[in-house]
Write a structure and sequence with these properties.
single chain, alpha+beta, 3-stranded antiparallel β-sheet
Length: 173
Amino acid sequence: MKLRTINTFLLFFLAWFSFADGKPKNELSIDKFYFINIQTKTKIGFDTDIGELEKKIGSSENGLNNTELSITWPGLLLKVNPKWEYDQATKKYQVIPNKYLISNATIQNTNYSTIDGVSIGDDLSKLLKIYGEPYRKTNDLYQYLHNEPDEVWNLTFFLVNTKVNKISIIRGD
């Protein structure tokens, strides 16, 4: 009985110590989920309006694909969602015409980097030095998370021969 009490106390203590701030040790802060256009130094995040982004980094390759709700630039694929606003008069949310926010970004060349400077071609040691141990990893995938009460953010690095080959940033429910 005494041994079980000690074990229970130790497990509780370790859990409390590991999550004292309510988050796993390897969880990233929300400010890590931005990326940068290297040439223009434009900071891009999930609060970035697509129309404003085109003004800063130039026109996209083919404009908005309304079927897939995606937009591309060389080395960058963005999935977007319509922007909503609350209408006080009707007490309903309404879509704002021609306004879109980013829900998913895939970086595929050196035109873009994470906010902390990790880009395509960087090696695993740089990735680990900047972000530390990931939440989940395999031989070729390193995934970092940020949890909010109603959504999870994923920052995933895909590697080939220990070099970053693709970066995916996803904001999801």
